[in-house]
Request: fold
Amino acid sequence: MSAGEGAPEIAVPDLIEGLKVVALGGGHGLFNTLTALRYLTADVTAVVTVADDGGSSGRLRAELGLIPPGDLRMALAALMAAPAALEARRRVDPASADRHQRWARVLQHRFGGYGALAGHPIGNLLLSGLNEVTGDVVKALDDLTDLFDVDGRVLPMADVPLVIEADVSGLEKDPRVSRVIRGQVAVATTPGKPRRVRLIPDAPAGCAQAAAAIREADVVTLGPGSWFSSVIPHVLVPDQLDALSETSARKILFVNLAAEAGETTGYSVERHLHVLHAHAPTLRVDDVVVDSASVPEGAEREYLERAAGRFGARLRVADLAVPGTAVHDPAKTAATVVGLID
Reply:
């Protein structure tokens, strides 16, 4: 796999027999992590945020009252179309690999035009329809993985749709005054600075299957992704935080390569850690992984080591980025995970 156009090939690890991995996150960050972890094992469980209220997901959520399907669909497509998964199928049955790749594209395809269907991905409609028929989003997701013969599993972090609410400063004349912003899209795009986020309902019940997967895993990853809307919400579900405390898995926190416009504008890598710790002071992880180019050697890295220590973790610095971008390279991420669990 190429890390970028014109870049040298990145050596990817072999499958590790019996390895069970759980990845917590949402959106494009989780998509990349799942692509990386699929190099290591076919036993990958994605646990996905369910607070999206924008675009197709927001429309379906408002019309049907169901869990927003978008991030769940993306996780399913990631497991279907991961290069390692396709290569494994291609060695046995090339036609099967081609079908998987084609269906992954179909699930991601958005309707064009200007009518009621415009902008809806096919996968969102399929998952929402199954959810409505079965009355159980976990059953609907399991049915889709069976239908498409997908290795791994996709689960929501909660069984009901959630709302993100944030205290945001910088929107009033007095910088000390915060305003409450509600909704994932509003929080992600605010010109102010989110200080703290909450979930509505408060302390929601988690998905039992997700908590069980975390407890039974060998490795659990959190991040990267939109910090306030895809990462922090995972530690605001008490059942899930309890599972993270009780699991014997190696817990790895991947920090974003750069601040994200809106949610974390102006945030340093260290600030990302402080904000996460403020929301979950009892959270313990084994490794905090940052990109070497985003944290130069010197005082800044020393500050990061102390920030990682608040989670009981060791700071790990690695080359993680697709060259010229702020995106994690799946092959480099996979190699980094192997280096840690070895």
